Amino acid sequence: MPADPWPPAPPGPPPVTRAETPPAPAFEPPAGPPLWLPPQPVPPEPSTDASPWPPAPAPAPASPPAPTPTPSRPSQESLAAPQSPEPHGAFTFQPVPPPTPAPSPPPAPASPAAPGTSQLPAPSSSSSPSSPPSPSAPSPDTVLIRRTLSEVEPVADKVTSYFYALLFIRHPDLRALFPAAMDVQRDRLFTALLAAARHADDTATLTAYLGRLGRGHRKYGTLPSHYPAVGEALIGALTRYAPGTWNAATEAAWVRVYTAISQIMIDAAAEDEATSPAWWHAEVVSHERRTPDIAVVSVRPDQPYPFLAGQYTSLETPWWPRVWRHYSFSAAPRSDGLLSFHVKAVPAGWVSNALVHRARPGDVLRLGPPAGSMIVDHTTDNGLLCLGGGTGIAPIKALVEDIAEHGRRRPVDVFYGARHDGDLYDIDTMLRLQRSHPWLSVRPVVSDSPTRRLSGQLPHVIRQYGPWPAYDAYLSGPPGMIRSGVSALKGIGIPPHRIRHDEIDELMARTRG
Length: 513
Known about the structure:
Blueprint: H1 76-80, H2 140-152, H3 156-170, H4 185-198, H5 203-216, H6 226-241, H7 248-273, E1 280-291, E2 294-301, E3 312-316, E4 324-328, E5 339-344, H8 350-358, E6 364-367, E7 383-389, H9 393-406, E8 412-418, H10 427-436, E9 440-446, E10 454-455, H11 458-461, E11 471-476, H12 479-491, E12 499-501, H13 504-511
Parallel strand pairs: 7-8, 7-11, 8-9, 9-10, 11-12
Antiparallel strand pairs: 1-2, 1-6, 2-5, 3-4, 3-6
Helix pairs in contact: 2-7, 3-4, 3-6, 5-7, 6-7
């Protein structure tokens, strides 16, 4: 392998197990990657003479905030127009005691929640132990959090822009953790809030969601001292843009929520640190162009990379440090340890264009940990109904290989969709698999041009086949196809819990390339 162009992973604390992880103090957020460091946005167009492998700047460890006599929360005037960096510690969080079980806030006018809009988790310490909230009733903290988010949702772009302005002015050293362009990044904070809040009182779901973020965000190189900075900026932005619902009780609820979120993420990151690196280096060993804008890229990681067929990973190129994009594995785990990806270059997609048009054997990429739950349940004999659109055929192919390797003859029906015949770039591979495995059926579907194959939109074509009462459904492709596909599958009687696909927000990040 060529000389390593990447900086070594930043040294971290000794691995700790979940049992040893110290509890997060009430607003001194613990270690681990902050929730607000999501998949990274698109940087500006590179110049043609840009030097590859610019070293990713390593964040300088932030020193603990020095005690100051300033109030625990700045005034509205001090937040209104930050002009120059403030010293660390100018705004520190103090422990916020649980609210007294006095007047619970009057019910707010319930604004109908749009799909995918709810609020942050809030293990409420205001509830009496003898009368915990019922599963159907939100906790008191959740009620307050939802009111705040309802108020700021119409101005979410301003809230998140202000959040980052506060964060970078007060803590300029954190700017190095983010890519140059912040246009997409601004949307990610509010999206993360809503996603976590959707399962505010569902502890199991919330822990799984935040745990995945905690493990995945290790690759950003964040430090324990970053948590207070993020919390300060978050509270400052909400204070400014939620005047109608903001008060001492609301602020206390947000502090408890942020502390709870931090603890879940530190537990997951610490647990993961004991067994996995923050990232893997992977050398490109083959690069096969299938169409002018689609390439199959195979890489060899520098150490074992455990994953399951149907999962995906985040990938960073040497040309765009700190810009990560998600790609599904296009093959089941192999004995030689190689990993393969199908990459389509999209307009203004810096990572995808680099991988398709610039990457060559010998280049070294970085991989984050595997993620995704679109995997096969090998404890059942249910058939698989698979819909793959465009490069979404990659994880479907991996699922077929996984079934074959387990040696169980369960029916697998694959519908492979594309706009034009020429876009079915992997049809020969799928048809070879069909000839080798009698339990596999592959049906190519073309939507936008005359064809001798099946014609129409992929989700609608499946209605002509079936029935599918004993099948588990798997979908992979563009976000629009996933949405319409899920609707079509529910319409033909497949229950939602047997329909699997990657999260829509992750798919949206992929389309940005």
